[in-house]
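User: What would this chain look like folded?
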Amino acid sequence: MRAEDEIDEEAAPLDDGPAARRRGEPPTRTCVGTRQTGDPDGMLRLVVVPCAMSPWTSVPRESEGETVALDVRRKAPGRGAWLTPMPQAVHGALRRGGLQRAFKRALRLPSEGELLTAIDRQLRGDVVEAIHLARRAGALRSGEGPTSQSMKEGACRLLLVADDISEGNHRKYAINAERKAIAFRKGLSGVEMGKLLGMPLCMLLSVEAEPFAARLQQRLDRWRAFHSAVAAEQAT
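Assistant: Here's the prediction, encoded as structure tokens.
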């Protein structure tokens, strides 16, 4: 079989770039690693860049040819490939040639470890961005008193506790949220959440309005699912 035939086999379709999305392309994409279709809001976009612009240590910028890069804002020009943020999709994209087939060219690809780390960083960045957006909209209350008041008023849509909160407090707030039918999630560390809000520490956060609560919940779930899947794979 010729190399070009191998590249064409079962290639996931590319998008036609940001301009095409503005024209209203169908809101589904095919993952280059698994060949499954899904909502692009839950996927990551990759584009081809010269190796001189490589973001990867495993692909030196002195290298000839092309590599791929994560398109964090999904606005990079040119055609893009889409990837589900799960380890098995990364394996399919790198080990089984999903990216090279999709772009129909030879590429110098990053190591799996580097791509997994970059995806984790992007997904965590999406969580940070969602918290920033909610704060700018005035949709947050932080601290035990304001958060409790938010729950009593029925304003709380998502109760977020710090990742390093004590087990006893975690249980207490989880039970309270369940009783009031409020979505409950662990967020970042208390120091990290505090930094985002301009304070030394934040262990408790109420998100009071939509779409901010749903967006933050979705991004947290996606990041934690990916993080857990990578950790489980590395433990085997």
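Confidence is low (pLDDT under 50) at residues 1-8. If you want, I can go into more detail on any region.
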